[in-house]
Design a protein that fits this description.
two-stranded antiparallel sheet, single chain, 57% helix, alpha+beta, 354 residues, 10 helices
Length: 354
């Protein structure tokens, strides 16, 4: 895998975990031979522990310091397999026999550590990328491995790390985003008691989304959890400004309805223009404050900038396009709805929401 994936330009470095670098001394007790000398497996293991591994027999105390006293064979008697086979074991009869009489001593290589996941032995291939587009890299790498890698039966591989976290986040966002839109629509309906007006106020999120996508594309940010967090915040701001615009339009229209004079289409247009003009300054102030607070983040290079930039980019781009929609299209849609209601004879005063 390391050799195959190293040919991909997006991979800065690849390191396959080496799992066969351990050196082991195997001592296999021969039960029948040990029983002839009256020894148990524990007796042989105790000789290995104390004579080869060493055993602490005392502790030297010097003030507040403690120094263990460990006893075992000198290095010359345990530095190779042949010498280890001559390690002596005392029998119950008082005889001293070499360990080779009751155990097989051998040297082997093996894994330096045993790593497993879900009960299966596991080895890692660490990949450092020079790109943030993990999805495209994994797709390219998977196709390359299918073409050039032949796995033996019982072997498999899967992608982990940040790519795995990204997949989990996308699964959660697929559930969260519909809930966000449903809650926004439900709150709008509870405020205005009109499905049509609630639908009109959902449109600013679409226009805001277009601006966020454009700026996100220009800055080269891929979809990530941080980007979606920025979009969710943007949707809230866009709907909020749209609600305030509709409130101003309702207030202007209600003042004309309160006079008791039958309304004409020209009166509705005049009321809409009046409410939209009153909302112009607050809307521009909101946009300017948001842009002034978030635009400097796009040039930041300090700690945390890599997280804050993807959050700020959709909000900055979306505020520009949502402003156009709220200031121009929302009043137009509102006027169209009220003129249709007037034509049907169902136009009446609306309760303002704030």
């Amino acid at each position: 895998m390391q050799q195959i994936l190293s040919a991909i330009p997006e991979a800065r470095s690849i390191f396959a975990e080496r799992v066969s670098q351990g050196f082991y001394l195997n001592i296999e007790v021969m039960r029948a031979e040990a029983a002839r000398y009256g020894l148990t497996i524990a007796d042989v293991q105790q000789a290995v522990t104390s004579g080869i591994g060493g055993e602490m027999v005392a502790e030297n105390v010097e003030g507040r310091e403690r120094y263990p006293v460990n006893v075992r064979y000198n290095r010359d008697f345990r530095d190779n397999v042949e010498e280890l086979r001559r390690v002596l074991i005392g029998t119950p009869a008082g005889a001293q026999i070499p360990i080779s009489e009751v155990a097989k001593v051998s040297f082997s290589r093996g894994p330096s550590m045993i790593r497993d996941e879900d009960g299966a032995l596991t080895g890692y291939v660490y990949i450092d990328l020079n790109t943030k587009d993990y999805g495209s890299f994994v797709a390219h790498a998977s196709n390359l491995l299918k073409q050039k890698l032949s796995l033996r039966p019982g072997f498999t591989y899967k992608w982990s790390g940040e790519y795995e976290f990204e997949l989990r986040a996308k699964e959660r966002l697929q559930l969260i985003l519909p809930i966000v839109f449903f809650v926004i629509f439900l709150l709008l309906y509870m405020v205005f008691h009109s499905v049509t007006e609630a639908a009109v106020l959902i449109f600013p999120t679409i226009y805001a989304l277009t601006g966020g996508l454009i700026l996100q594309k220009l800055l080269g940010y891929n979809f990530s959890v941080a980007v979606w967090v920025g979009y969710i915040a943007l949707f809230g701001i866009a709907v909020e400004t749209g609600v305030v615009m509709v409130v101003y339009l309702h207030e202007a229209l209600n003042r004309r309805l309160a006079t008791g004079v039958p309304l004409k289409h020209e009166d509705i247009e005049a009321a809409v223009i009046e409410g939209a003009v009153h909302r112009l300054r607050p809307k521009l102030m909101t946009v300017c404050v948001v842009l002034a607070s978030l635009v400097p983040i796009l040039w930041e290079t300090g700690v945390g900038a890599d997280v804050m930039k993807p959050i700020a980019a959709p909000i900055v781009g979306g505020m520009i396009t949502s402003t156009i929609h709220v200031l121009i299209l929302v009043p137009v849609f509102f006027a169209v709805m009220k003129e249709r209601a007037l034509s049907r004879g169902g136009l009446r005063g609306s309760t303002s929401a704030g």
